[in-house]
Amino acid sequence: xxxxxxxxxxxxxxxxxxxxxxxxxxxxxxxxxxxxxxxxxxxxxxxxxxxxxxxxxxxxxxxxxxxxxxxxxxxxxxxxxxxxxxxxxxxxxxxxxxxxxxxxxxxxxxxxxxxxxxxxxxxxxxxxxxxxxxxxxxxxxxxxxxxxxxxxxxxxxxxxxxxxxxxxxxxxxxxxxxxxxxxxxxxxxxx
Length: 191
Prior knowledge:
Number of helices: 2
Protein name: Protein GrpE
Number of strands: 6
Family: Belongs to the GrpE family.
CATH superfamily of the domain at 135-191: Head domain of nucleotide exchange factor GrpE
Order of helices and strands: HHEEEEEE
Radius of gyration: 47 Å
Subunit structure: Homodimer.
Structural class: alpha+beta
CATH topology of the domain at 135-191: Nucleotide Exchange Factor Grpe, Chain A, domain 2
Distance between the termini: 145 Å
Keywords: Chaperone, Cytoplasm, Stress response
GO molecular function: adenyl-nucleotide exchange factor activity; protein homodimerization activity; protein-folding chaperone binding; unfolded protein binding
């Protein structure tokens, strides 16, 4: 009987050891799973935070680009408004400029020398101011006819000049800030 008791005791101990080992293995597996889940949760949180940061940076970059575009657009609008206002002013001065030009051309007799000199001074001063603001006279005589700058109102014939060359200017044309505000009225050579 002592053998049987020893055997039973050995079997009980073996069963207990195996149960203890099994329980230890289960606890270890449970701890590993808990650790893996914790790592996965941390990785998920890190990924979400990275995505949120990336989205925030993207929004920030878009906002900065939108703001830069807004600044450029408003600056261009401001410049356009300024130029439009000046263009209207300059256009209103063109008849005055034409009249001064005509008055200068009409004062040919000797008694009008002082008058002519005064008109020339005013004319030069006015041209200087308008040039500073961006008004430029369109160069015409001897140049090729360009419908963007010239308005052909007459045709002439000069065998010494090339075809489609401006022979005479009836009314000067002007550009303002590189934009034609009045084409020159010209006589064009036609062979």
